[in-house]
Amino acid sequence: MNISGNTILITGATSGIGRAMAEALYARGNQVIITGRRQALLDEVIRNNPGMAGFQFDVDDGGMPEALAKRVKSQFPRLNVLIANAGISGAEDFTEGNGNADMAQAIVTTNILGVIRTVTAFLPLIRHQPDATLLATSSALAFVPRADFPTYCASKAFLHTWLVCLRHQLRHTPVEVLELSPPYVQTTLTGAEQATDPRAMPLPAYISEVIAMIERGDHPAGELVLARDKPRRWAEKEGTFATLFAAISP
Questions:
Q1: Residue ranges of the domains in the chain?
Q2: Start and end of every Ketoreductase domain (predicted)?
Q3: What amino acid positions are annotated as catalytic residues?
Q4: What is the pTM for the complete model shown?
Q5: pLDDT, tens digit, for every residue of 89-117?
Q6: Span 218-246, average pLDDT
Q7: DSSP the chain
């Protein structure tokens, strides 16, 4: 992926990693198109970054990806990068029969079906463009999960496997398939407390490392994994999975 000169669409770009990525890539000279559910937040980001474009978009709505793709094709025919970032998280407790399938269903709908629908709609737009890139946001928890976030971690493990298969299928096309696997970062993904949790990596520091990795082409096998997360990425191979799983699971 080139670091500049692209036309980029980012889902889930009104907060957290999505917004920070959008602003960082905008600063590098890209045409950035953001999407999100809340119009007020879209307006705020665009107001702070003149020249950005934005569309209200809910990945949970099965009919919206195709409709948005048609609008984007008409207004931004040079779209060559899709960043499928929209996702949600939530803790689940299945002890003593306390499990709630509603949370699991919401996570699967957004994190799995939302990504599949978005990629299906936009891949035909980018696949013949110069320097085409598909990047999706997974998680370091895809490799070593936290026991109190079972469906979230499983959704990211699904996404990792899905991207491996997609990368293989598209290996003879111009489309580069990348996977972003963030660690625990200071965002509001799991609530307001996460944004100030000292155990979490500061968001600006994370984005700075990711942008530098993209610029260097430092993503072996299409994976953007920080050096600090390599032990989790290779935990099963190195025989440390059980130890790391116990350390991060309450």
A1: 7-248
A2: 6-186
A3: 152
A4: 0.96
A5: 999 998 877 777 999 999 999 999 999 99
A6: 97
A7: --SSS-EEEESS-SSHHHHHHHHHHHHTT-EEEEEES-HHHHHHHHHHSBTBEEEE--TTSTTHHHHHHHHHHHH-TT--EEEE----------GGG---HHHHHHHIIIIIIHHHHHHHHHHHHHTTSTT-EEEEE--GGGTS--TT-HHHHHHHHHHHHHHHHHHHHTTTSS-EEEEE---SBSSSTT-GGGGG-TTSBPHHHHHHHHHHHHHHT--GGGEE--GGGHHHHTHHHHT-HHHHHHHH--
